[in-house]
Write a structure and sequence with these properties.
mainly beta; 5-stranded antiparallel β-sheet; about 5% helix
Amino acid sequence: MKTRIRIKNAGAKTIAGAPGSTGPKPVRAVPTKATTADGQDRATSARSQPELLSVRFELDVLGARTVSVVGTFNNWSPGAIPLIPQGGSKWLRDIPLAPGYYEYRFVVDGRWTDDPKAKAYAANPHGGRNAIVTPDRFG
């Protein structure tokens, strides 16, 4: 009787010196990497994923039926990130963003609107201005 050991992707090998073996047969372990579901190396994948920071977008607007935030973080897609009504005139939404530079605007009932509380603005190609947010882990 031969004693066998299975090694991933290496097939069955006889262990050297096992009862019934005809001589030493080398067994070579094949090291395997931990991978993610999509086949990426876990160690590399963990390092390459940017840290996401929660950024709060809020707007006070009376009588609005819908409010969303659009910007460089969602390819300026109206309605993709709706804000949540908080009662009265307040709307807000926390969005996870990687550290960086983003321009954005609000869309209130289909009308593009400035953020009146933004700390900085950039001119946009439509003759208006976009608010700027720059999340980072230091504040």
